[in-house]
Amino acid sequence: MNMEFAGRGKPSPDKFKHMIAQDHDGLAPSAVEIGLTAAIVAVLDNEPVALIVRGDPDSAGATDGLPFGPFEPRQHRTLEAGLRSWVREQTGLDLGYAEQLYTFADRGRHAEQDDTSPPVVSIGYLALTQARGGSDLSSGVWRPWYHYFPWEDWRRGRPEIIAAEIEPRLKAWAERQADTPAAQRPIARSERIRICFGLDGTAWDEEKVLERYELLYEAGLVEEARRDGRPATLVGSSDLPRLGHPMQFDHRRILATAINRTRAKIKYRPVVFELMPDEFTLYELQKTVEAILGPHLHKQNFRRLVEGAGLVEPTGEMKTRTGGRPAKLFRFRREVLLERPAPGVRVTAPPSRAQ
Amino acid sequence: MNMEFAGRGKPSPDKFKHMIAQDHDGLAPSAVEIGLTAAIVAVLDNEPVALIVRGDPDSAGATDGLPFGPFEPRQHRTLEAGLRSWVREQTGLDLGYAEQLYTFADRGRHAEQDDTSPPVVSIGYLALTQARGGSDLSSGVWRPWYHYFPWEDWRRGRPEIIAAEIEPRLKAWAERQADTPAAQRPIARSERIRICFGLDGTAWDEEKVLERYELLYEAGLVEEARRDGRPATLVGSSDLPRLGHPMQFDHRRILATAINRTRAKIKYRPVVFELMPDEFTLYELQKTVEAILGPHLHKQNFRRLVEGAGLVEPTGEMKTRTGGRPAKLFRFRREVLLERPAPGVRVTAPPSRAQ
DNA sequence: TCTCATATGCTCTACTAGAGCATTTTATGA
DNA sequence: TCATAAAATGCTCTAGTAGAGCATATGAGA
């Protein structure tokens, strides 16, 4: 079998030369500025929190933001090194576990910059850390992530904001599409709404955090969309309530991506332990997982799965004053990382806590 | 419960102002050039292939490469739009499914650029497409991806190159670490080698494509490492065989990431169908999955799972001249994308085909 | 017509995860 | 001192799923 499937033409090598040093119109290379942004996540008192720094309180859009700064190739050996250095400088925190999330570059998502400044490409990172109560931050605050995404908080059942605010407004937005011929729509808005927000009996999927935020943005229902001057917001945007707390630039989108990734990854990689102290009880572990994923898990099965997967080992110590029978203390078995595809906390969602 | 966990100091807002327009030393913003690179994957005659364009054949390092070009904020509305436009220009192909993989920026991975040019950050993309036999390319060739990663091809059992070339050389590299005190090593090299390449009874994990490539790079065993002047390559690098075919810049790393993502994603999202023609038999579908994942699957179970998941529907037509009993033709049920978390081809690896 | 290769249907079994019952062990307060 | 609450922990039952293998159907080509 001939493994070379040539195209009709041959590539002309010098056609590519220009791409390295300069661009089409013969101008200087189209250089852009790269922003590094960190969504730093921890769990404090069973509440998932993110590390927030405040934007300029004088300006009209004084909003919360994530630690961030530009990538400086001359000073930063790698992207991640640059990120760590900005975070250290801005919050005093030394990052442990960190992973790259996504690189965003859509026009118009940085309304706060003026039009002459270079376009910004932002690379989002997720960092997981254990925030001890006696805060070791030089600056910044831990704020609950559900503060920015109230519709994601299913710990006490379906959040009212969905039925009260989100659903009716999204449906109105879907109606406005009715004049477009059905054939031309990629996926009908109403379908996307149903899937994202678990309407009409569709189950709630806790891993659609980003999709939901983007849908709300597209529909002009989050403040950032208004700030960026999205078309959908032009109609009757004055009487809209605020859905969750806004953030500067595209930081809320990055935080959504971070929550999304955390929820997904916790199930197949042992990342919860980055959020835990060195020693913990299985109940504390479970509460941490639930803080992130939402639904309540079956206690006995949770213990069986975690212990069975070899993720933890008893320290031999007990924790008393738990409010009941003392609990064995466990520690994370770091060795599992050396074993085959290291598993996560295998939890499947309960049979549909929708509605 | 007080949800604001303030740090010791308060953030000083104007501290952040400089980050938007200029950097520390008061120079112009540290702008960098962004490269968009596409790993375009298809399956032809049960062979997974990538779309390759040739580097400059005159230069010493005349090597294969992936379609790529710089992101031009003035012309490209989004990163992905830029990518599509470069691919169209360089190969004549109109991309269908595409997703972002990762953003790389390590120093020294672009040895071909001279030191005065701006640093390059490259954003890798994975595109899946159906390459019809009668090639519609204006330029570029489809080459088997195992050409670049021979150790990943387990379709005919464990590739000999592992025992013959890779294992002994990696072990030699691990030996060289023996003088470092054990406490200082993050994870012993020998452990990483065992896990990556499934030695000593460890099962082969087909989803560690990138990890394996990076390990070989770090050990100085792939040509790119020599090209980049990695320290590990300085000793006796002249007699080294070539492990797989090299590529220009960091393109082989991006292709490794693409293979990795494809292998992972095919299991939990219905992406195989991007590689299939509109109508196909279940056997063809199975062969395509096997081309990507490696191991052979149990035919009857595969059919049961695919049909049971509602991923396909019969067209009503039959395909004759299959070499045996005619097979029903199926098509992808696009509707599954609208159903709950759309499943992939749920295949678990057979009980360890490791040596 | 015979044989071959594949298509396709069905069953058996092991394992896993969801659920629930029951018991043990401490802290707390009447 | 003792009842009670709140957990911790052990066990069992069951439904569903996936791995394996057996058996049969059906067209192509010799």
Itemize the secondary structure elements and their pairings.
Two copies of one chain form a homodimer.
Chain A: E1 5-6, H1 18-21, E2 33-44, E3 47-54, E4 64-65, E5 68-70, H2 79-91, E6 97-104, E7 120-128, E8 141-144, H3 160-175, H4 189-197, H5 209-218, H6 223-227, H7 251-265, H8 282-293, H9 299-308, E9 312-319, E10 327-332
Parallel strand pairs in A: 2-7
Antiparallel strand pairs in A: 2-3, 2-5, 3-4, 3-8, 6-7, 9-10
Helix pairs in contact in A: 3-4, 4-5, 5-7
Chain A binds a DNA duplex (30 and 30 nucleotides) through residues 281-283, 298-301, 303-305, 320-328, 346, 348, 350-351.
Pick out its properties.
DNA-binding, Nucleoside Triphosphate Pyrophosphohydrolase, disordered C terminus, 355 residues, 3 domains, 26% helix, 9 helices, homodimer, alpha+beta, Arc Repressor Mutant, subunit A, disordered N terminus
Care to describe what's here?
The structure is a homodimer of 355-residue chains. With 355 residues, chain A is of the alpha+beta class. The first copy, chain A, has helices spanning 18-21, 79-91, 160-175, 189-197, 209-218, 223-227, 251-265, 282-293, 299-308, and strands at 5-6, 33-44, 47-54, 64-65, 68-70, 97-104, 120-128, 141-144, 312-319, 327-332. The first copy, chain A, contains 9 helices and 10 strands. Chains A and B meet through β1, α1, β2, β3 and β5 of A and β1, α1, β2, β3 and β5 of B. The structure holds a DNA duplex (30 and 30 nucleotides).
